[in-house]
Amino acid sequence: MPTLEQSRHLVTEIPGPASLELAKRRSAAVARGVRSTMPVYAVRAGGGIVEDVDGNRLIDLSSGIAVTTIGNASPRVVDAVRGQVADFTHTCFMVTPYEGYVAVAEQLNRLTPGSGEKRSVLFNSGAEAVENAIKVARAFTRKSAVVAFDHAFHGRTNLAMALTAQSMPYKSGFGPFAPEVYRAPLSYPYRDRLLDKELATDGERAAARAIRVIGRQVGADNLAAVVIEPIQGEGGFIVPAEGFLPTLLEWCHQNDVVFIADEVQTGFARTGAMFACEHEGIEPDLICTAKGIADGLPLSAVTGRAELMDASHVGGLGGTFGGNPLACAAALATIATIESDELIERAQQIGRLMTERLFRLQADDDRIGDVRGRGAMVAIELVKSGGTEPDAELTNKLATAARAAGVITLTCGTFGNVVRFLPPLAISDELLTEGLDVLAGLLGEM
């Protein structure tokens, strides 16, 4: 296959005629509830570029929502999957096991925070990982209640929707949801400072607020687990104030509550560390991973302390496709690429480039209320000029204009006013800079 040219190039309007034709077929064949960010249909992707059916080359600042972290067609992954598919595609690990599953579990046990003995179990999606982590916590503690946080997103299955905070588009009309799920306030520095400046910078104080709510609404004696994204994803790329996560973890350990870190979006080098928990030196009891784990193939995992992971009865964990051999081969190649190509350091470089550019933009435009994130997981929160009122209309207008200009961008946030940047770590500085320049130019015209 020829190398995909790493340049933005538009030969038609977005969408082009071939994409419009496919859109007609889609409307007749695909359920209306499935939404797509871009109105184009991809045929090739790699590095920092996605090429559509009309020959347009688009700058990728989304990585398939943090999935193709090392690129859409990373050579080691391509070779590993080709080799595996020639041997066998499936036997089911619960029927005839194979080495790939074991090898991925070994790597996860090695890489995830914590020096003690660990175990892992493999699934297909982030939502599956979260639900199974809660099963493990309930089996271990013999308690049932679970606490999630404001602005959280944990998936689209029933229990995961119960944990998720935002109604539209994730929960509305799909209830009733799983019981014994409660919510506590997150540390959200940009918004917290509107209430209390100290609360915005003092993570311990923000954690104490959450713990008070948990005590009143649930009680530690009833609580099996606390589940939290170390940096929230769909909720707005919210980075809690320093000290929030360690204080919460300490309280969990003091009260026999399992601390579950949902690293589905933040894991595997995305934030400039292998896992976002490492930025504050915390060791979760259980950690959920997916998305970037296998460079686009469906795979997820729960990894944790051996005594927790072994609490479930034999046969209590599993699934027909969990740890599919093709996905395991991709995961092993992904991990090898991250380590051999020093992609953690690359994520840090990308983070510096993005934040420096966005901070300069913020200095000239008060509609950028906040610039935040870690590594190659950065966002801007857009507000109405002269204040802090969320501006979802401007956000959607900017993202739509960027897409029409050939830059794939995503929005998020409880208030719909956050533009998030998740470039693949294989992107060049030149493409990344061009993508940000396009957004800056468009924002200046609005």
TrEMBL record:
Keywords: Amino-acid biosynthesis, Aminotransferase, Arginine biosynthesis, Pyridoxal phosphate, Transferase. InterPro entries: 4NH2But_aminotransferase_bac, Aminotrans_3, Aminotrans_3_PPA_site, Class-III_PLP-dep_AT, PyrdxlP-dep_Trfase, PyrdxlP-dep_Trfase_major, PyrdxlP-dep_Trfase_small. It comes from the Bacteria. It catalyses: 4-aminobutanoate + 2-oxoglutarate = succinate semialdehyde + L-glutamate; (S)-3-amino-2-methylpropanoate + 2-oxoglutarate = 2-methyl-3-oxopropanoate + L-glutamate. Pfam families: Aminotran_3. Its cofactor is pyridoxal 5'-phosphate. GO terms for molecular function: (S)-3-amino-2-methylpropionate transaminase activity; 4-aminobutyrate:2-oxoglutarate transaminase activity; 5-aminovalerate transaminase activity; identical protein binding; pyridoxal phosphate binding. The keyword Transferase applies. Pathway: Amino-acid degradation; 4-aminobutanoate degradation. The keyword Protein biosynthesis does not apply. Gene3D superfamilies: Aspartate Aminotransferase, domain 1 (3.90.1150.10), Type I PLP-dependent aspartate aminotransferase-like (Major domain) (3.40.640.10). Belongs to the class-III pyridoxal-phosphate-dependent aminotransferase family. This is 4-aminobutyrate aminotransferase. It comes from Mycobacterium kyorinense. The lineage of its organism: Bacteria, Bacillati, Actinomycetota, Actinomycetes, Mycobacteriales.
